[in-house]
Amino acid sequence: MTNFAENRRMELSINKILKKDLDLVVPLIMELSEYQTEESLLKSRMHEMLEQNYECFAIYLNEEVIGTFGLWFMTRHYAGKSCEADHVFIKTEYQNRGFGKEIFEYIFDYAKGKGCEMQELNAYVQNFKSHKFYMNLGYVIKGYHFLKKL
């Protein structure tokens, strides 16, 4: 577990989640995706993801889970060894406290420690607030992410 000191009364920490602990973060991912995926299907998908090059993390403030994120690891022809942040979410009442910047510093350090050359992510088109946040962290918009239902 990695700890961050927000102030003397509160402590932010990040802990890797195992399959048996997915119930800690599934409600947060459901909230992020506006409950568009049935809970049992989301759990099934996440169990499968954990068998791939994916790691899931919970963000704690003291003893409370206040957020989550996942990391995908791969090699891309255009980026080399890469880490993609996925479903980055902090509960609304804990946003705008500087936690996001601390979390991404953790992600960057973690990815570098695994030999990654690039960190990337996708953001919802309508989430303008996140676009500004990511650009302030040094991200640049390189393209669009397309989906097609099969």
TrEMBL record:
Keywords tagged on the record: Transferase
Boundaries of every N-acetyltransferase domain copy: 12-150
Short name of one Pfam family: Acetyltransf_1
Classification via SUPFAM superfamilies: Acyl-CoA N-acyltransferases (Nat)
InterPro entries to which the protein is assigned, alphabetical: Acyl_CoA_acyltransferase, GNAT_dom
GO molecular function: acyltransferase activity, transferring groups other than amino-acyl groups
PROSITE patterns, per the entry: GNAT
The protein's name: GNAT family N-acetyltransferase
Species for this entry: Gillisia hiemivivida
